[in-house]
Amino acid sequence: MKTLAFAGRNAKEIVRDRLNLAFGIGFPAALLYLMSAIQANIPVSLFEIDRLAPGVAVFGLSFVSLFSGMLISKDRGSSFLMRLFASPLTSGNFIIGYACPFFLIAVAQSVICFALAFPLGLPINANILVALVVLMPTAVLFIGIGLLAGTVFTDKQVGGICGALLTNVSAWLSGAWFDLNLVGGAFKAIANALPFARATNATRAAVAGRYGDIFPDLWWVIAYAVAVFALAIVVFNRKMKSDVK
Amino acid sequence: MTAIQTTKLTKTFGPRMAVDSLDLSVEQGELFSLLGVNGAGKTTTIKMLCGLTRPTSGDAVLLGDSIVSDPFAVKRKINLSPQETAVAPNLSTRENLELIAGIYGNNQPESAAAASAMIEQFSLEEVAKQKARTLSGGWQRRLSIAMAFISNPQILFLDEPTLGLDVLARRELWNIIRSLRGKVTIMLTTHYLEEAEALSDRLGVMSKGKLKAVGTVKELLALTGAEKFEDAFVSLAVENGKAI
Q1: Least buried of A194, B106, B132, B189, by fewest C-beta within 10 Å?
Q2: Domain coordinates of chain A in residue numbers?
Q3: Which residues of chain A lie closer than 8 angstroms to B47, CB-CB?
């Protein structure tokens, strides 16, 4: 009941922030339609809808880090978290209460992204459901990044780190907007060492029905998601036990 | 029965002594005011008692549970109105109240009923559906205090609760606090001496982290030889007093 009450509050805080909705759903949707329009005039295989939609879905999830980081850092910046820390909420209640609404929002965002891609020619089949499942570790990864950033940084810093830096890094290194083979070298090596391109590759494989190609890319994403989320839990617990300013 | 018993409760921040070996006893149902100038250690004391700050040494037992060895047992019995307004900005007044009721273990119907009772008690009807971020500072403050009362705590900590309230709202809150006298143990900090004088069963004066004196208004007046409580406070907050 305690976790549900807290999670409900967090969901309302996010959904009622119009800027969140604009960036979380509006921006990826605009990119989807813009890139499709470019593809219609100058055919580029990368922007064919079955390759574009998975890339946009992964990129769109990066905004979940911004939402979660901002909410937690704003709570920390006000006396509201002090009030909650004085309540009988445990660290488990806090982490589940913060993470669950963002997970549901990530699922909704991915569903909307694919739904918007259907009129643009994305085939409606079971592969989309598999792709949604494949996207979930990526959602957990971005939620973990937000939880970590929100616990450590101020809301202004979170805006810079998750809003500008992370969205750019995930865009540039995801392979969603250009083929990483065209750049090659160290850039490609770095992109393949990070989880973003791996997430895009795995989701594209799922959408294409090439289930055998989902792994090992998805293992990379899962490993990053587990590591980042575990780190976020450790840091949050430490913060909770330290002196509240 | 003793509600709050501190034993050599101490908090240091680096070289700075914030609370120095505090020995204090507050009885169940008592309204105890902790007074002192800025930086005297009042808020740090409250934060330790609420489990927000770990003591450097010493301990406090609240209704049988230690803040050091079982802080969660303590947290189930208390609630706090922080010095600064603490509300969820995108939630309405009613939703804020229901949130706190839910966090303290009430189900949805119970939370809704508790929220309705608080809305009536704190005269929040006209802003019940309004988002907290759109409320004026005074309304936000009133809501923030109502959120501390909604869990029916056995011990209530009010850290400068009337700061930012107008005279009418302040008097209204005084009446609510008075109505809880004998039922709930209340520890209050305030800079308004007339407020402490009007509400408290006993008062403690802190200075530089030390508890200088404890007693009723009459006892503190007698101790300092002052005629007015303000003079007694100044004398205790500046000079070395004695515990009664």
Answers
A1: A194
A2: 2-244
A3: 243-244
